[in-house]
Design goal:
By secondary structure, the chain is α+β, with helices and mostly antiparallel strands. 25% of the residues lie in helices and 35% in strands. Strands 1-3-4-5-2 form a 5-stranded antiparallel β-sheet. A hairpin with a 4-residue loop joins strand 4 (125-136) and strand 5 (141-152). The chain is elongated, with a radius of gyration of 17 Å. It starts with 18 loop residues before the first strand and ends in a 6-residue tail after the last strand.
Length: 158
């Protein structure tokens, strides 16, 4: 396993099992308020502290899509991702789930693992699935997303 954001990506597209992690980011109340304003999602579970106390979470939680966005940002800031970025042709599919809530004050980091690599019908292109997980300070996966990317093999024509 390869790890940590200081590691550059390999010179070729990585194989299944290749993994790296990012630094962390704390989710703040301001993040939630700004995301609600940007998205228009003012669900009371996210923005109404009194209402949220009456739910099974007993407090406000971050929007799942906010956590997914932070996960994407943390991933793209790593040296490992930046090494792969010139080979990215397109995001072709995205599947996600949110197994645990993210609370105000939680710090998440990204853990990224290649879970699939399949040659495309066109030479020099590969479909790769990168499982991105947002992991909180308690070691819990709070968001998991499989990003299917169309990639260009290094040296292949775009």
């Amino acid at each position: 396993m390869h790890s940590l954001s200081s590691q550059a990506a390999p010179a070729t597209l990585p194989d299944v099992g290749y993994s790296f992690e990012s630094g962390g980011r704390t989710i703040s109340e301001a993040d939630i308020v700004q995301f609600a304003g940007l998205s228009g999602d003012f669900n009371r579970l996210h923005v109404d502290a009194e209402y949220a106390k009456s739910t099974r979470f007993e407090q406000r939680i971050a929007h799942g899509l906010l956590v997914l966005s932070v996960l994407s940002g943390l991933t793209t800031q790593t040296l490992a991702y930046r090494g792969l970025e010139p080979q990215v042709l397109a995001l072709i599919d995205l599947n996600c789930r949110f197994p645990k809530p993210t609370f105000i004050g939680d710090t998440v980091h990204a853990r990224v693992t290649v879970t699939e690599r399949v040659a495309d019908t066109r030479p020099g292109r590969v479909k790769m699935v990168f499982r991105r997980e947002a992991v909180n300070q308690r070691g819990e996966v709070v968001a998991q997303a499989d990003f299917a990317m169309l990639m260009r093999e290094p040296g292949a024509a775009a």
